[in-house]
Give the backbone structure.
Amino acid sequence: MRRSAKITGYALLALLVLTACIWYAVIQESRNGLLTVSFLNIGQGDSIFIDAPSGRQVLIDGGPSGAVLRELSKVMPWYDRTIDVVIPTHPDADHIGGLVDVLPRYKIGTIVHSDAEGDTATAKALGEEQAREGAQQVIARRGQIINLGTSTGSGLTAYLEILAPDRSVKRVETNTGCVVVRLVYGKTSFMLSCDAPKEIEDYLVRLDGADLHSDVLKAGHHGSKNSSSELFVGFVNPAYGVFSRGCKNKYGHPAPEVVALFERFGIPTSDTCKDGTVTFVSDGEKVVRK
């Protein structure tokens, strides 16, 4: 009888632990109709994690190294080993280096990328990982919509709209051919302009004008003087700006003139060097810094 009681006690304990784990997972997965966007602290580069109200997840770029794995562990539940969409915006190492480590560790649904060609060892390694992953491959083109599902709470749908490139960029400089996306949820939006130079930004102004308006703007090319044209920033007219960059980087990002431009427009900025990972939350009506 004593042994039977002991076994019963272990079984009850295991059941309690299992129940606690299930409730923990339920609580962690409950998004309450909120969209969360995190600009990850991965050093000199870009990496953006999107957690949609539907539960769909997107990783845009992976920074220069495996540091992205550390940051993903902070914004994803420990038991979650899948990412629905990965977008390497262009084949420069400061955007795709970390994806070489991400792809073998997570099950990826779809990879959306431009056809800009990289000739570095990092670009080759990512190409090999993409082939092994077996995920659906999509060449990014202007006008494509990536549906991130509808929130059961708000009834609103989150989606990514691809603004650029609008043609094949195989023989185009990689920054010029990068994937510019705008994330939309209800009345709120995020402009994620990769490393697009001023020429592309101003081209988008000619195409889209006031439709570029977004609540959050990730400053192009880490705050480089070659991006963030006055015309583009003015039409986006964000409530918040973000500089994704490493401390004491050799390029001097963000450039003083870009910092001054955001100040002149009255746009408060966050900086992954100074602030670490920068997270915003949207309920479809407004965006707040978390």
